[in-house]
Amino acid sequence: MSHTAHIPSHRKPRRSASKIALRAGVAGGVLSTIAVAGAAGPANAEPVTETIEMPTIGSLDTELSTAVAAAADASQQEALDLDLAVQENAANVQAVKAAKKAKAEAERKADAARAEKAREEAKERASRTAERTSLSASSGSSYGTQQATGSAAAIVAFARAQVGDSYVMGSTGPNSWDCSGLVQAAYREAGVDLPRISSDQSSMGTSVSLDNLQPGDILYWGSRSGSYHVAIYVGGGNFVGAQNPSTGVVERSLDYDRPSGAVRIL
Question: Do 126 and 145 have their domain in common?
């Protein structure tokens, strides 16, 4: 037996061929890269130390998802804005249509009101005409002779022509009157000048009974020398007078407002 048989071997274990090849390949690649870099750059160039990080697949997915979500939100907001604009436009159109309809309805009602007023006025005029015709055709009554003639006819015709005019204190025509202004103007048609004030008018002429009136007589309210209102008797138990601001010039029955007395000028 050899004297070295029991001494352990000091040789390193063999490496496998695959590991040796792998390490050689890596080393060769590194050396090749260094060689290329050295050949490309100047001899005294400093080694490149900057590290470039390449994006990972996970970060690309996240950025893509974020971009897609942002685009979807933008599209949704644009759709909402467009829908709101459509709704606002439709509301504006409806508002314009409603306003036009309301205006047309208001104009229709105004036209109907004017037409109704015109019909009422026409009926009132026709009624007054019929009443005057009836009074003119009527014969004697308890108020005496009813048919106006001569100067009295002119006074009565003028007074009746003013029916419907307004009452204005101190006015003497032609479209508004007070009581004495109307009486004075009516008598002027017959060529008779009367004082302006009612108390002076009732103090003229001859006092007559209310049961013996004739067309053209002056009716007064109050005392004869201190009357506060006058009117003209037109026959048939009626008088014409500028009564007050509410009624204007009207033709009324003596029973409507019984006078205090009467005077005859003609």
Answer: no
